[in-house]
Amino acid sequence: MAQTNGYLQFFPYDSPYENQREAMDRISNALARGQNVLFEGACGTGKTLSALVPALSYAREHEKTVVITTNVHQQTRQFIAEARAITREEPVRAVVFRGKSSMCHIDVGYEECQVLRDNTREVVEAERDLAQLERRERSLLADAQGGDGEAAEARAAVMSELETVEERLSDLEETNTCEYYHRNLSTDTEGFYRWLFEDVRTPDEIYEYAEERTLCGYELLKDGMEGVDLVVCNYHHLLDPGIREQFFRWLGRDPGDVICVFDEAHNVEDAAREHATITLAETTLDSALDELAECDDSRSEHARATLVAFRRALETVYEGSFSFGEREAVGENWRDVPIENEEGRDDLTIEFLSEYTGRGIDRDLDAALALGRDLDQQYEEAYKSGGAATRKECQTLTAAAFVDRWLEEGTEPDRYPVVSVRRDSGTEEVYGRAELYTCIPRAVASDLFSEVYASVLMSATVRPFDVFADVLGLEEPVTMAYGMTFPEERRRTFAVDVPPLFSSEREDSEVQRTVSTVIEDAIRMTPGNTLLFFPSYREAERYHDLVGDSVEADCRLDKPGTRAEELRQEFTVSENAALFTSLWGTLTEGVSFDGDDARTVCVIGVPYPHLDERMQAVQDAYAEAYGSSEDAGWEYAVEIPTVRKTRQALGRVIRSPEDFGVRVLADRRYTSKSARKMGKYSVHDSFPPEEREELIDVGAEKLKFAMLNFFGDLEAYERPPTP
Q: Mean pLDDT over all residues of the chain?
């Protein structure tokens, strides 16, 4: 076991906070025992260093590598800043890793890149052989001219070998190669690695450095990762099984020699689910059938029998789902067509089996897969030899592999077969896709957590720990939670008793009038900027339009696709602005509104996600897996993730001990009395105990007075507003 507090050599500042020191001690002890850690810490806890410092210390002592990961760009910048601070105190070899697509200088796909690397390596090896033979030939020539008969005979053999290598090199130069990777292999790159490890370099800095020198920074970075102390990367490097295997190989580490730190860990569930979900679009099926039509292999007939039947079944199912006018209403975003069938397999599978007329699905699928693998190999060889300008992907292999998994996994309880449709923006044609949606991500996540030495999963909103551990397949993790340590007298959290904003009530004009008044009061009583989160962008737009002309603030409306940091900067320029946005947008996490940037944050309603058949499938899967109570599915799949998202939104304000502000939850379901009167519809008890204690119930008409008193006591107003 490591010495107590030995990790402080990696702490870059004068001294840790009290909670931070305790958290580091507990994480250090957990790592010594090889245990996973669930770590919830409010803003100001210093979560990043609390995890990173003991992890780096243990890794240094036991020859392991720490991988810290997030899916939030702003957090990556924070990691880089903390890593740089650490390296000022204790030398740490750290790299920041990003995907190939954002670092490639010639913009080719992964398969093409692989072929280019192989070809380029062969060219460089041939060039080296040629140079070595030329040196040998010159030496022998000198000896022969001096009268050495054996040298003359040896020179003749070398000249013959030279001719062979020159011919090979000439052939290789006709193949596709990469100029940047050629420079990697043919020049001295020690200068790059000295520069790389002098500091913690960002991927953009690496790209620019390499571009100036015609080097491939991505490949240099991969080659230089072996045995480093720290890697900063994105979730998919760990959650995608295929990428993870390669990633660990680049590290030169067995999984058991890797310590993972997940930041914003409340996002791991959705990220793991995304990586476990597979899809097959109708356009891919069409490409596969075109590919087979051009193939003279006898197996193509059997492959076509399977893929044609699946293609026809897919179209039949989604076309049959349209009622009058629905087909014309299909837009550019995917829309689900439920295919669940109470009598057994889903509608698409039943239709597929009806359409299929081959010699046997298993036999024909095996033939399609074998043919697909052979075609894929042919495409690689064609690209490698220069016979093709790009590395073609085998659509037959893609389609057959999907159909095989569809039949194999479609009945598993954590899989939800679904069909979706959308309209192509170019052709205006409607087309479909089949999807095996993963309801419970445990299968993907648990493999990772069982492979690596240990993990620390941290966020401001991890609780309830038991649910989080269940969903991700974590066995008996160490758990710790630290609430906000800032002065309580500098914040207020109000649960406003407005009518519960059930979806059925949102069109009620009286409800809208009540909510609009609460929003107006919150904006008017805030000495600065106000953030307002709604269940959807549609609701944000509704209340922006209802309230905008009634207040003197600069009312701004967030829309889908707007970049979070740009929006934050535009909003915070004003000293009296109100930003209307969706809780499911980009501003609820990883974006800080410090000090005067925002003084009040409001969450309007309980922002449950869209409750469709897909979400019902997730509920059903959770209910079956964790059915300890009648409402377990709803709790695991809907309520807890929604409350986590709400807590993330509340955390956008009050970011330091000197900061102050108000958090408003506008819906009766947040109030303490709702726990008694509304039963399962209340969300009050879904908040952690210390956060529930801070919730103050107020009537809709009293919010303005409560806010006036709070901000007035802090002398925050230049001139107090009139209630």
A: 91
Question: What is the CB neighbour count within 10 angstroms for residue 713?
Answer: 9
Residue 450 binned pLDDT confidence (cut-offs 50, 70, 90):
very high
> Measuring CA to CA, which residue among 486, 492, 559, 553 is closest to residue 521?
553
Query: What is the rounded CA–CA span in Å between residue 647 and residue 261?
Result: 22
Looking at the predicted structure, is the pLDDT value of residue 491 above 80?
Answer: yes
8 A C-beta contact, residue 235 and residue 69? yes
Q: C-alpha 10: how far from its chain's center?
A: 28
Q: What percent of the chain has pLDDT over 70?
A: 99
Name every residue whose Cβ is closer than 8 Å to that of residue 68 and which is 6 or more positions away in sequence: 48, 51, 52, 55, 79, 230, 231, 232, 233, 260, 261, 263
Specify the pLDDT at position 505.
87
Backbone torsion region of residue 147, taken as left when φ is above 0, otherwise alpha when ψ lies between -120 and 50, otherwise beta: left
Query: 524: which 2 tokens?
Result: 């008017």
Q: What per-residue confidence (pLDDT) applies to 675? A: 87
HSE (CB half, 13 Å, CA atoms) of 432?
A: 24
Compute the distance between CA of residue 95 and CA of residue 247 in angstroms, rounded to an integer: 13
Q: In what order do the strands lie in the sheet with 230-234?
A: 94-96, 230-234, 65-70, 258-262, 454-459, 37-41, 478-482
CA distance 445 to 236: 11
- Does an H or E element contain 356, and which? none
Sequence-distant (6+) residues with CB within 8 A of 25 are 4, 5, 54
Question: Quick one: average pLDDT of 310-329?
Answer: 94
**How far does the chain reach from its first CA to its final CA, in angstroms?**
61
Phi, psi of 267, rounded to the nearest 5 degrees: -90, -10
pTM over 0.85: yes
pLDDT at 490 over 80: yes
Are the beta carbons of 283 and 431 closer than 8 angstroms? yes
CB count within 10 Å of CB 549 equals 7
Per the DSSP assignment, residues forming a β-bridge with 38 are 457, 479
Residues 584 and 608: their CA atoms lie apart, in Å, by 9
Assess whether the previous peptide bond of 609 is cis (omega < 30° from 0).
Answer: no
